[in-house]
Amino acid sequence: MSKKESTPKIIIAIDGYSACGKSTLAKDLSKKLGYAYIDTGAMYRAVTLYFLRNEINIESEAAVSSALSKINIDFINVNGKNRTILNGEDIEEEIRKMYVSQYVSPVAAISAVRRLMVAQQQKMGEKKGVILDGRDIGTVVFPNAVLKLFLTASPEIRTQRRYDELTQKGQVTDFEVIKSNLLERDRIDSNRADSPLKQAVDAVVIDNTNLSIKEQLRMVQVLVKERIKTLKRNK
Ligand code: DC
Predict the structure, then answer these.
(1) Ligand 1 contacts CB of residue 15 (under 6 A)
(2) Is 191 contained in some domain?
(3) According to DSSP H, which parts of the chain are helical?
(4) How many angstroms does the Cα of residue 3 sit away from the middle of ligand 1?
(5) How many domains is the chain built from?
(6) 201 domain-assigned
(7) Mutational pocket test of ligand 1: of 44, 139, 165, the residue with most ligand atoms within 8 Å of the beta carbon
(8) What CATH number is associated with residue 136?
(9) Which contacts qualify for 26-33: CB closer than 8 Å, 24 or more apart?
């Protein structure tokens, strides 16, 4: 049996506040490990875009349920990059825009939306060898994940990173507008009744305020190796 075949594949759950670098870490890690990456925030953003475009009244259970039955979300890989597809349309760029960020948290608080997204995420992850990032991965979606990380960073550094990202894409946005959006999303995400953003008791907390992307990646690679070693030992 080759070394690769004998290495167990695990589920890695990455949760944390908005703009903490969860997706950067998840993408880099997925390349290093050859794992699939599921950006669960993109799924909530895709639903939000659909609701906005179709003027769905989120107060109406019937309207939400009918809209959800018409939504199909996929991920495809184009030149090594993840693209989010909504009903056949590539919406990867659109869902990162500010008008979607400003509406996504109330949509993500709707239980019917969460039920559907969580079921799809569990199905996508059942083959293992997968990294998911979001808010409820270690607590609700995969509570038995072998490695759970909870990322955090200061609001200033998170705002700066998001500001740089949007500016690079030519989407000039005011620093304070970004900051208040991040904090407001954290507030709604942490206080909603259904699966709020919270640290799983067995998560490893990483405050990356003063860590480079490379330092954080190296740190997590060590954790992955340790967990896999323990799994093999206990087999
Ligand atoms: O990770 P992100 O910023 O793209 O996520 C967008 C929003 O989606 C976030 O404000 C909260 C919600 N979300 C969630 O409720 N549960 C998840 N697993 C992922 C995201």
Answers:
(1) no
(2) yes
(3) 3-6, 22-33, 40-53, 61-68, 98-108, 111-125, 155-168, 175-191, 213-233
(4) 36
(5) 1
(6) yes
(7) 44
(8) 3.40.50.300
(9) 26/131, 26/132, 26/133, 27/82, 28/213, 28/217, 29/131, 29/217, 29/220, 29/221, 29/224, 30/131, 31/80, 32/217, 32/221, 33/129, 33/131, 33/224
Q: What per-residue confidence (pLDDT) applies to 85?
A: 98
CA of 39 to the centre of ligand 1 (A): 9
- Domain of 212 in residue numbering reads as 10-233
84: left (phi over 0), alpha (psi -120 to 50) or beta: beta
- pLDDT number for residue 1: 42
Q: How confident is the model over 128-154, as pLDDT tens digits?
A: 899 999 999 999 999 999 999 999 999
Is residue 105 lining ligand 1, measured as CB closer than 6 Å? yes
Is position 104 within any domain?
yes
Does pLDDT of 3 surpass 70?
no
Among protein residues, the one with the nearest Cα to ligand 1's atom 3 is 18
Question: Is the Cβ atom of 138 under 6 angstroms away from ligand 1?
Answer: no
pLDDT score for 226:
97
Give a yes or no: residue 5 inside a domain.
Answer: no
Tell me, using a 6 A CB cutoff, whether residue 121 lines ligand 1.
no
Tell the residue nearest (CA) to atom 5 of ligand 1.
41
Q: Which atom of ligand 1 is nearest to the CA of 108?
A: 15
Q: What is the mean pLDDT of residues 32-55?
A: 97
Q: What is the pLDDT of residues 15-43, one digit of tens each?
A: 999 999 999 999 999 999 999 999 999 99
Probe target for ligand 1 pocket from 15, 135, 161, with the most ligand atoms within 8 Å of CB: 135
